[in-house]
Specification:
alpha+beta, 25 helices
Length: 699
């Protein structure tokens, strides 16, 4: 597509594509294309001007070549991405705001005064009816105040005041609805499925297939701990399915043959074969949006307190109005109290503040499932880290395979990969990747595979029992032994690596040595978290005491626990909570799920096990732990903004009331200033809490 460069500095370019404007879909496709380029760090596309702002690294010539090669017809976006991108939503609400402002001031210029007054009187009936309906239900809510202020102004024939109040209320409603829908949409998009591969059942065999190639009627196999990728009917097997992402249910639901399962839910226990019913459409996205909008998870306790306080203040505002009128017999001064209320600003600004913080977190690749979790992060005193895939790199690698007599190293790796590929864990991924690198073909040659959480995997090959997993699982639970002639070799295993033990017919067959290097940023992240006010930083791992001690010393945690089971992590967190401390848990595996669920805030790594991400309250990207520090700073600033909003709303509106009673401000002026301050604080609440990049702030 043809374009011109409008502005350029090193590493940043603004280009204009040669057309008047782009469609929403073209803009979304261009953004998707740009973000997929290896040289592009960030990008923003403006459909109205057909412009794009690009932050890039490397040579500009490569970027220019990529821009010249852009053709929206040749790019296939993931299903539902364009339809639910939020771009059209933003345009719709921008137009709504513009139309409302044009109608307001256009009417003053071109519509005769009597006609305009009649329209205002007619429009006021909607607000008055809401107030009457609230009173009929026995509620003294903000709608009663709005109705009283507008109704009294109409009765006094002060139509300009009534019109101003309704106009500003309308602006506030549009802004609140826009911010809420955008925040919910951003959150839902980040929670939506991104499944690329599935296990398809073909002629009795499990075949790893592209999810895009699955059609209704196909059969897929879902193993324990994996996300269910499509809606469908259970054909075989029995399982417990976590449906919290769609229904909010805390307990897993049992699914038997004939039962229906939904895309995006997670198989907690068991294994099932599903006949696919739906593969297309945006049902998953729509279900998530509905769940978020209906869920109390969105509300932090400060939001709840704001709403309760707002409603509780209504009777006092009405009583103050009546008292001022009784004492002064001055309707104007009484109206000065009625026109100014604290509840409107409280109810409008607090949810916008929290939802905007959730949206901002998304800019840093942090997905937050509810406002109360940001509040809990701000208040937390204890943070617990899993080791593997969390403090250590999410991509461990196989360094050595040591055979103990059953076969050569390649054969042992092939068997291990065949079993491990069914289950999502960083160690399992390392084994599968190593086999692929060696070009080892490992067709399904085993029977049913059983996964024992935090322990290992058990199956059979050619009638022989095969197990792979931790030392505890292989030697203590399964009672496997080492042949006498290999015991000396066994005791000389390299200590610098983590070990996976493979046994066949209760005899050790191989040890897979896996390097699990520490994340470079981990020590600095631990120190930064300590500086944010976290008083207890703990590492818990199922690894040996030797490995745990070495990692703990390198990262600088306050304390560590080795050889722990999933229930041990959860018990520790429950004890911390019982002592009155709020706890953050950070993990990535199935074995972290009980602890993630037990904590006040569970944080999962984005490329960890699906069940961990599903149960967690917050998800961060896998490439940088510094996002946890960003999250802590963001949460702290959110709470500061909320408290600052409280102080401003109370102080400013109290000042307006005093000036109105003193006769310095007229009711219309008080109403105007009150509503302007409400919209102003709401707009300020939509601003980012943390400094952003130039692309994020570019207009």
């Amino acid at each position: 597509m043809d374009f011109i460069i409008k502005h350029e500095i090193t590493g940043r370019m603004r280009v204009h594509f040669k057309k008047d404007k782009m469609t929403f879909k073209e803009a979304d496709i261009l953004l998707y294309y740009l973000q997929g380029l290896p040289s592009v760090k960030d990008a923003r596309v403006y459909e109205r001007t057909a412009d794009a702002v690009v932050l890039y690294e490397g040579e500009r010539g490569g970027l220019l070549s990529d821009l010249k090669g852009f053709n929206p017809q040749h790019i296939e976006m993931p299903e539902g991405m364009a339809e639910n991108s939020g771009r059209e939503l933003n345009a719709v609400y921008q137009e709504k705001l513009l139309q409302k402002i044009i109608l307001r001031y256009g009417a003053k210029l071109f519509i005769p005064y009597p006609v305009r007054m009649a329209y205002i009187a007619l429009k006021s009936l909607k607000y008055i009816w809401k107030g009457v309906r609230s009173l009929a239900q026995g509620k003294l809510e903000v709608t009663v105040l709005d109705a009283a202020a507008i109704g009294v102004s109409v009765l006094r024939r002060d139509m300009d005041t009534a019109g101003s109040v309704m106009f500003l209320l309308g602006i506030g409603e549009i802004l609140e609805e826009w911010t809420h829908k955008k925040s919910v949409g951003d959150l839902a998009r980040s929670m939506s499925l991104n499944v690329k591969k599935v296990w398809q059942k073909v002629e009795g065999q499990e075949v790893l297939s592209d999810a895009s190639g699955i059609r209704p009627g196909d059969k897929i196999v879902v193993h324990m701990g994996n996300v269910i990728p499509f809606d469908g009917i259970v054909e075989e097997g029995e399982a417990l399915v976590n449906q919290a992402s769609l229904t909010g249910e805390a307990l897993a639901v049992r699914k038997n043959p004939g039962g229906y399962v939904y895309a995006g839910t997670v198989l907690e226990e068991g294994e099932i074969v599903i006949q696919v019913e739906k593969t297309k459409g945006t049902t998953r996205f729509e279900k998530i949006v509905t769940m978020i909008e209906e869920s109390e998870k969105l509300k932090s306790s400060v939001e709840g307190r704001a709403e309760n306080l707002a409603d509780k203040l209504v009777p006092y505002t009405l009583a103050g109005t009546a008292l001022v009128w009784l004492l002064t017999r001055n309707v104007t001064k009484a109206l000065a109290v009625l026109m100014v209320d604290f509840s409107c600003a409280l109810k409008l600004s607090m949810p916008i503040t929290v939802l905007s913080a959730m949206r901002e977190a998304g800019q840093y690749q942090i997905t937050v499932k509810g406002g109360k979790f940001l509040e809990a992060v701000a208040d937390a005193q204890t943070i617990v880290f899993d080791k593997t895939g969390t403090l250590t790199k999410a991509r461990p690698t196989v360094k050595e395979v040591i055979s103990f007599g059953e076969g050569d190293e390649r054969e042992m790796l092939r068997i291990a990969a065949c079993m491990e590929e069914h289950f999502p864990h960083s160690m399992a991924k390392a084994v599968v990747k190593a086999a692929k690198k060696e070009n080892l073909v490992h067709d399904e040659m085993h029977a049913r595979v059983d996964y024992i959480v935090a322990h290992g995997i058990s199956s059979s090959i050619d009638g022989r029992k095969v197990v792979i997993g931790s030392y505890h699982f292989v030697f203590e639970d399964e009672k496997c032994t080492v042949r006498e002639e290999y015991k000396e070799q066994f005791h000389q295993l390299p200590e610098e690596y983590s070990h996976l033990y493979l046994a066949i017919d209760h005899q050790l067959a191989a040890v897979i040595c896996i390097e699990d290097p520490l994340r470079e940023e981990a020590p600095s992240v631990i120190e930064a978290l300590r500086e944010t006010g976290l008083s207890r930083i703990v590492m818990m791992t199922g690894d040996s005491e030797r490995t745990a001690a070495a990692i703990a010393k390198k990262v600088g945690v306050d304390e560590y626990y080795s050889e722990v089971l999933p229930e041990d992590k959860a018990s520790f967190i429950e004890a911390e909570k019982a002592a009155g401390r709020k706890v953050i848990m950070v993990g990535d595996g199935m074995n972290d799920s009980p602890a993630l669920s037990a904590s006040d805030v569970g944080i999962a790594i984005s490329d960890g096990a699906e069940i961990a991400r599903e149960i967690a309250d917050i998800t961060i990207a896998a490439d940088d732990l510094r996002e946890i520090v960003v999250l802590k700073h963001l949460s702290g600033r959110l709470m500061k903004r909320i408290h600052a909003n409280y102080r401003f709303i109370v102080g400013f509106n109290t000042g307006l009331i005093i000036l109105g009673i003193a006769g310095i401000l007229m009711p219309a002026t008080s109403a105007l200033l009150h509503n302007i301050s409400t919209v102003g604080i709401s707009l300020k609440s939509m601003q980012d809490l943390l400094p952003g990049t130039s692309v994020q702030t570019d207009v």
